[in-house]
Amino acid sequence: MHLNPERLEYYQKRLSQLLQNATQHIRSYHNELTTLKGPQLIEQTQNLWELSQRYRLVASSNASAGLALLSACQDVFTAIYETISQLNEDLIELAKDVKEFQLECRSLQAEQDDEWSHLVDWNTWLKKTLIVFQTQAKYLELSMRSMLPKRIENSVVEQFRKDLQLPENYVASIYLGLAKAHLKPGMLLPTR
User: Fold this and answer.
1) Where does this protein have coiled-coil stretches (predicted)?
2) Is the pTM of this model over 0.90?
3) Where are the alpha helices (DSSP H) in 32-62?
4) Which end of the chain is more exposed for a tag (fewer CB within 10 A), N or C?
5) Where are the alpha helices (DSSP H) in the chain?
């Protein structure tokens, strides 16, 4: 069953808009993590490690200095926690966009009784990108939970840094999908 031109135009506009929203969230999230929040998180974790080392040195000999350092550790930990929480909130918004795109594709498929392979490709790319980001955020959260101010180890800081870096193949896939979306923003559905 073929769609009439009005329905085809509706799906073309709707899917294009949903894809544009999702790719904008992906681009924004990735750029923010790599240029703003990532370096900030690295600096904060390094600062937390340094403060915890100072705490270890002075806590037994000077209780008030130890308390001040512990308070400073808690402030830095709170800032790290809030940044990671904000990343998770951003991912919730991206997940909504991905889900909406998938639902609209299913609706089109139900009306058309057909499946366009490039829509499947977009669905797969969006879902894979979301899963990569969610996994990274979960690892960051787990590493963060290992940052107890009194006992933070350098290995935890190093692991946190590693968790901030996505593997090259994931980054390449993200950039390739963003480039495709940028080059063909309104050409999701072929004319039949």
Assistant:
1) 84-111
2) no
3) 38-58
4) N
5) 5-31, 38-58, 63-112, 117-145, 154-164, 168-183
